[in-house]
């Protein structure tokens, strides 16, 4: 008995030395992590100072700064990922230390109760029974109970810290994904704004080439203005957003593939071990069904990989294939896995080492997995209904299902982490089971992250589709209004052109009809065509008014612009304009009759005075023509000035919008930097908490080692006293 106790104490001392060495390593690693976090904070501060210094530069320099900040952010993100890997490794080492600590506690308990469990020899006398052993000392027992209570409290605190650390890591991953998407969106906005500014500068340079080009560019600018009004923010590519959704879907399917593969390996190890005994029939069947589900998810992973490789998503061709695969998975889970899984959970609850808390966690795990199977079926139904007429309701239901999948995956991860804390302490837990359990926990964590990405990106695609529909409707409405105005102007100009064609008027005759008419109408084609041409001296009528001139100038441009559009958008407008043309023709006929009557009356009234004032009338007509030409040119210049003022106002509004976008992007950058600083502070606090827990473990291990040493010493003293008493008894018997 003494040899075994000495060997156990020596083994315990060796293991304590190893633990002390590992803790020193962990301390050194914690220092390195702290220095790395401080360096990253310094980098972030430098970046903020540079952003403040360069804020007063031009728009081009701000875009370069945003690119630089985005590259720095990517580097910082990679550093954070490496630090997170180090934290996870430290967490696994902490769990292994807690497991070893539990083993030491059990050994202490065996040391406590060993003297009571060993049978007394028949040769012991009543004198030896009268003296109690030192292990039954009430002070030592009370001290041991206090240490056990403290150890239990520390273990509970460790469990809480582990769960909080996992939740913080998951939230950190989600926030990093959202921030990366926001930064990508801002970069796209800035690139689109730069492209628009370049296009506008090129348009302004081409305006000086000619009048026709000026009018065409004005029409194009008007359409661009309509697009800007309909879309105040430049939208990102919808195809790119769909590819991002495909990437998140691939990650979700691969995570589910890993989960089912690890569940297959787990059912072959616990509660039945295939290396120790043959597995029951239902366990073998459950293992094969897990493998089948894993193969189905791997097929979905291949489909999504092909979509990402082609960079094109065609819903009509690829969505039915994905839906059929999802239907197979949901049917497989509901019909083949549901009953077998529930039976396996019942057998796990009947294990000897299963406590009431673990039983409760097992039941919670069962309900969550069954809810996951039902959620697979709902998602499949929503995917099948996407091709129906009511797509908005189906897409909203699909988004709700993805949100439920995100929350359910986080609940699965939390429940399994709590279960694994209990199951890792089992004395029958092997290294293979620990490896499978750790891998399953990592797979569930990856599934939680990927489902959160999938839900967020799917919501973004939905919002983009709604925005695109709204912008398309507004742009279509504005284009219809513009085309309607252009066609009305065109018809008005055609009517005016028919009425205002220049005619050659013969000089007046000596009879009663040869008097000069100053109110002569140029639009009467019938009357002027019938008058004989008696002299070679002809006079041309006065030019058209300014409105007719501008309308005729715009009619050719509107004709060219309307010919580029497809005819199916203009059927209703053409019908309206034909009716309007008929009405204008009727009004023109009426005007012809009225003009002919007025002409005859004026000719009769001015017949007597026409002969005397022929020379004066000719001079007056020349002056009137010059006056009208001058007025027309003045109106043209006035219209040009008005258009230039409108263009100036338009560019002022554009520059204001650009300044607003720039200020908004700077504020968003500040928010991102503040969020990064808060995340680094959280990581620093978690490292401090871990260090405090490690120090408490060191103190507890020191107390346990001292207690073990005192127990061993007391045991040796008891054995020496027993030997001395036995020698005295033999001496008295001989005497």
From TrEMBL:
Biased composition (Polar residues): 530-564, 724-735
Basic and acidic residues biased stretches: 712-723
Annotated Pfam families: KLRAQ (PF10205), PPP1R21_helical (PF10212)
GO molecular function: RNA binding
SMART domains for this protein: KLRAQ
PANTHER family reported in the protein's UniProt record: PROTEIN PHOSPHATASE 1 REGULATORY SUBUNIT 21, SMOOTH MUSCLE MYOSIN HEAVY CHAIN-RELATED
Compositionally biased intervals (Low complexity): 117-134
Start and end residues of each Protein phosphatase 1 regulatory subunit 21 N-terminal domain: 17-151
Coiled-coil region(s): 80-107, 141-200, 461-495, 574-696
Protein name according to UniProt: Protein phosphatase 1 regulatory subunit 21
Region (Disordered): 112-139, 502-569, 712-735
UniProt KW keywords: Coiled coil, Endosome, RNA-binding
Localisation per UniProt entry: Early endosome
């Amino acid at each position: 008995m003494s040899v075994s106790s000495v060997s156990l104490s020596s083994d315990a001392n060796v293991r304590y030395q190893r633990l002390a060495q590992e803790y020193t390593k962990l301390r050194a690693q914690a220092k390195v992590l702290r220095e790395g976090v401080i360096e990253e904070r310094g980098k972030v501060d430098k970046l903020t100072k540079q952003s403040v210094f360069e804020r007063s530069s031009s728009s081009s320099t701000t875009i370069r700064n945003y690119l630089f900040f985005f590259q720095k952010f990517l580097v910082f993100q990679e550093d954070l990922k490496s630090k997170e890997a180090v934290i996870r490794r430290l967490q696994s080492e902490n769990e292994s230390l807690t497991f070893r600590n539990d083993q030491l506690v059990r050994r202490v308990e065996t040391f406590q109760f060993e003297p009571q469990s060993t049978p007394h020899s028949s040769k012991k006398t009543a004198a030896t029974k009268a003296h109690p052993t030192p292990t039954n000392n009430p002070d030592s027992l009370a001290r041991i109970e206090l240490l056990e209570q403290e150890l239990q409290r520390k273990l509970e605190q460790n469990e809480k810290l582990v769960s909080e650390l996992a939740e913080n890591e998951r939230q950190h991953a989600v926030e990093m994904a959202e921030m990366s998407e926001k930064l990508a969106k801002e970069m796209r906005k800035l690139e689109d704004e730069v492209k628009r500014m370049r296009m506008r500068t090129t348009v302004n340079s081409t305006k000086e080439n000619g009048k026709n080009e000026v009018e065409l560019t004005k029409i194009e600018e008007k359409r661009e203005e309509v697009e800007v009004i309909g879309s105040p923010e430049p939208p990102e590519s919808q195809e790119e957003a769909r590819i991002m959704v495909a990437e998140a879907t691939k990650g979700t399917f691969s995570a589910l593939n890993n989960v089912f593969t690890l569940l297959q390996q787990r059912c072959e190890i616990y509660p039945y071990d295939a290396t120790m005994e043959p597995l029951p029939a239902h366990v073998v069947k459950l293992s094969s069904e897990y493998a089948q589900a894993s193969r189905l998810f791997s097929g979905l992973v291949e489909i999504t990989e092909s979509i990402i490789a082609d960079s094109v998503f065609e819903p009509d061709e690829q969505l039915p294939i994905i839906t059929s695969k999802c239907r197979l998975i949901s049917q497989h889970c509901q019909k083949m896995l549901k009953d077998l899984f529930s039976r396996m959970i019942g057998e796990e609850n009947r294990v000897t080492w299963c406590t009431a808390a673990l039983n409760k966690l097992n039941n919670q795990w069962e309900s969550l997995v069954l809810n996951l199977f039902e959620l697979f079926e709902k998602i499949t139904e929503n995917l099948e209904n996407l091709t129906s007429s009511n797509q908005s309701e189906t897409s909203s239901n699909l988004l709700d299902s993805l949100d439920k999948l995100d929350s359910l995956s986080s609940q699965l991860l939390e429940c399994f982490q709590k279960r694994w804390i209990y199951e890792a302490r089992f004395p029958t837990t092997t290294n293979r089971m620990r490896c499978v359990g750790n891998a399953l926990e990592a797979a569930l964590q990856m599934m939680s992250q990927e489902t959160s990405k999938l839900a967020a990106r799917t919501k973004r695609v939905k919002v983009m589709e709604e925005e695109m529909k709204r912008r398309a409707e507004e742009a279509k409405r504005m284009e219809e209004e513009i085309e309607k105005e252009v066609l009305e102007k065109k018809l008005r100009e055609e009517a005016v052109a028919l009425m205002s064609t220049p005619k050659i008027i013969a000089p007046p005759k000596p009879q009663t009809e040869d008097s000069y008419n100053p109110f002569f109408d140029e639009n009467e084609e019938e009357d002027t065509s019938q008058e004989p041409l008696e002299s070679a001296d002809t006079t041309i009528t006065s030019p058209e008014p300014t409105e007719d001139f501008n309308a005729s100038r715009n009619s050719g441009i509107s004709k060219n612009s309307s010919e580029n559009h497809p005819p199916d958008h203009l059927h209703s407008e053409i019908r309206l304009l034909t009716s309007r043309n008929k009405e204008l023709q009727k009004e023109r006929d009426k005007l012809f009759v009225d003009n002919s009557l007025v002409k005859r009356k004026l000719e009769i009234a001015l017949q007597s005075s026409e002969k005397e004032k022929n020379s004066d009338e000719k001079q007056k007509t020349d002056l009137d023509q010059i006056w009208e030409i001058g007025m027309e040119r003045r109106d043209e210049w006035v219209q040009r000035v008005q258009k230039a003022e409108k263009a100036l106002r338009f560019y002022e509004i554009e520059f204001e919008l650009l300044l607003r976008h720039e200020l908004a992007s700077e504020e968003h950058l500040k928010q991102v930097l503040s969020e990064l600083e808060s995340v680094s502070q959280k990581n620093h606090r978690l490292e401090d908490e871990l260090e405090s827990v490690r120090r408490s473990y060191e103190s507890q291990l020191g107390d346990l080692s001292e207690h073990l040493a005192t127990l061993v010493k007391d045991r040796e003293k008891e054995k020496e006293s027993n030997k001395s008493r036995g020698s005295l008894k033999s001496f008295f018997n001989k005497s």
